[in-house]
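Entries read sequence, tokenised fold; example below:

***
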Amino acid sequence: MDTSARSLPAGSGGPLDARDAVRADALSEAWARSGSAGLCGRASRPPLGVSSALVEILTDLGGTISRRSARLGRRVDLDCLAMIGERAAIAGLQRNGTVSCGGATRLVPAADGWIAVSLARPSDIELTPAWLQLSTVPADLDDTWTTVERTVAGLCTGDVVERASLLGIPCSRLGELKAGPFWKTTRRIPVEPSTATEGAVVDVKPVEELIVVDLSSLWAGPLCANILGLAGLRVIKVESAGRPDGARLGPAPFYDLLHGGHLSVALDFADTGDVAVLRQLIKRADVVIEASRPRALQQLGIDALTPDGPAVWVSITGHGRTGSSADRVAFGDDAAVAGGLVTRDEAGPCFLGDAIADPLTGMLAAALTLTRLHLGGRWLLDLSLARTAAWAARGPVLPIDPRGIAEPRHRPVTAVAASMGRDTDAVLGELRISR
């Protein structure tokens, strides 16, 4: 398939052998030029190398997106290597070793390994005493991190991660998920009568008539929607009136980059009438993108496997839709650590990129969606941030020449994102959905 990783021989992350030297040099040079290489490692030292699979996957994703978008009608050419560093370029973020570029997640040594934990939300900080079984923690965030590091040092990673998961704190053990083929959870949904046979290429609606309902937030899902919008699909962003996309509070140019040109609908997910409207919107959609834990949509009576659902349902989770990890919370940095997508030096692991599991998964979701629209039929794309990271963590380490590293950059911001709910009435009126 187009998005398979034709990577250099997998190994333990050691040096490349001589026969791969030419290919390694080309990959290393491309990564250095991208501007993303400078986000890997410690602030006080030169940037560190990354897995060969990561660079090859990103290169392949760019090619897949170009080819598949062209087949639908509007070619989209992207520098996927550079897009890893877009938020950092806009916000002025830099590499910082065991502290994430954004500052909210840290790699912390435990008694038997390393964990990554995010204290990005006020609730995460408030739950820290319960998580670590302490009577209290300091009010100052820096002192809180000192307490976390001191306490975790004497605990086992399994216990730390399990307790955090029960409380909804994003926390992962380094390398807890081994690499595996992500496509095992990408499957055709049976429908009667079947709209296509496996592998068949079918006609689809004109690209400008394809509707994307984007229920996601933050980075991975919105980036997928952004790419589909660039390919000509019509994107409708749907937010809960009581819980808007948290990315609206971040750098406005970054939010505009991902959402400019999209329509905005706001609904009250606690209101039965608005939930009925949401279901109607989903029925009208050709693509649905959501990044919720499965139970969240189930509580609204919405099921990805519904018989009259969209052609492609994109489900992005931290650790997967099923099994014991289905309810775990994850952000891009801690999910990357779960998949082993880090860089290392003699002092230990460091974060690789800025919340890298987010943009990597978003680009993968877009490539797979474009491919599935071309194939026809109905599809459920079950993508987890951690599983995608593990897929990209394979292979030997690419050495990076610090003299050739470019600064992070971002695509031009060409439109201001719509205010929340600006287009609600217009969209519902055009689609003849009663509220």
